Amino acid sequence: MKILTAAQTSQADQATMQAQGIRSDELMERAAAAFCEWLLARLAADPARPLHIFCGPGNNGGDGLAIARRLYQEGFRARVWLLPASKYSADFQLNRQRLPPELVCQALNPKRLPTLAPNALVLDALFGTGLSRPLSGTAADVVQHLNSSGACVVAVDIPSGLFANSPQPPDSAVTRARYTVSFELPKLAFLLPQNAGWVGEWLVLPIGLDPTFIHNLPVDNFFVDADFLAGRLPARSKFSHKGTFGHALLLAGSRGKIGAAVLASKACLRAGVGLLTVGVPAVGYGIVQTAVPEAMALTDPATDFVTELPDLKPYAAVGIGPGLGQEDATREVLRQLLRKATVPLVLDADALNLLGTNPDLLGLLPPDSLLTPHPKEFERLVGQPARDDYHRLEQLRAFAQQYRCYCVLKGAYTALATPDGTLYFNSTGNPGMATGGSGDVLTGVLLALRADKRLSPLDAALLGLYAHGRAGDLAARETGQAGLVAGDLADFIGRALQELTASTPLL
């Protein structure tokens, strides 16, 4: 799904009203209805829980008033607090007029803000995506009061004070929500680590924005879920054979790190590669042959690290990096690979570290190469730290454009940058995947999919990222997040890909 800017979200609202012949208050009513349906399922377990709704003077406050009215109709007596202002939006005023007389609204007194019990539920409808400057004065005081109350705060659309698609100025007042309930499409701010303490757990509820307008709206950020990937992974035909799905070469491992080669190999096989050859130093031969009998082992003349590049003719894709080490001879293997390769490359771990310490190698990257750095590895690639998460995304976008590559920035909501500068954020995965070897598994999955000539470079990358995270989610159900290890991911890759495989439609 697309990730819109705040301005584009406003445009989508206007286009929906025009296309569907509805007023702004009717669209607001849809949002209130969707929010209340979600909230009532949680309030049902504790109808006596203290409930407070804080409303600002704009349309976000109008949402809060519409929610208050609907909750009142369901039998919940929320206390409604209004932020004093010299001007209120038309939809705010309309929804205030619609409140039943028994539902009293109280103006917030900055000198005597309401006491909030620790078990209270607070709805933050102070400010929405239209905010263009940091909160100040009474608004900032109210937000700080909510944050220090200990109450459970639910943000309506976006936490008040948080910008939807740009960084916060230092020390800005922003509501710290436990839940953020947004509408129709996610916001870029939800996907970045620096905003996690404000956004909390977030979800998006549909409200029927015009799909044609959204489809035609140009964006450079996407959020990737199963629906987005539907139909991209073709089913296997009855007469497929191992050659159909490609022969991959994996160059990996060094003394003490052969496990990385094993994990990547297992994942590559589980991701459906037709044939896999693993190039390892001599110390890894017996380990690979024993741990991954389905793969062919190609032994380097050196005992402890890779020193020679094999003949590349048999291979449909080459992966390099997991546990590889950074010896001078290994660096030269990477240099030769970058110069000679005519097939897709997947670079991870020590291959990326070698690129970072030898910037001249970056200029040798073949077009459409796929790089998979974590944030520190990416910092080494670009040669400078990012000011914040937004700046890092711009660095990522620029890097992929400059080197005509696909670059993955690993983490929660892993981001993929493409050669045209588009960013795709992955929706799957969990904190249990923050464990050694998880990246090696990802390399193996991506290598298998890049060896499959049925897939475009973009589809291979998107499917691999999603399946890797989904495997982690499936594994965590059995092991728990704390008990998750990288080998568990490889075991569930096949099931994750099966969920994405296109089915043959019935007549």
Automatic annotation (TrEMBL):
Cofactor mode of binding and number, as noted: Binds 1 potassium ion per subunit.
The residues listed in the UniProt record as binding AMP, with positions renumbered to this chain, are 410-414, 439
User: By its UniProt entry, which CDD domains does this protein fall under?
Assistant: YXKO-related
Binding of (6S)-NADPHX occurs at: 59-63, 128-134, 157, 260, 323, 374, 440
Name of the protein in its database record = Bifunctional NAD(P)H-hydrate repair enzyme
Q: State any GO BP term from the record.
A: metabolite repair
Known catalytic reactions: (6S)-NADHX + ADP = AMP + phosphate + NADH + H(+); (6S)-NADPHX + ADP = AMP + phosphate + NADPH + H(+); (6R)-NADPHX = (6S)-NADPHX; (6R)-NADHX = (6S)-NADHX
Membrane-spanning regions, if any?
A: none
Q: Which family does it belong to?
A: Belongs to the NnrD/CARKD family.
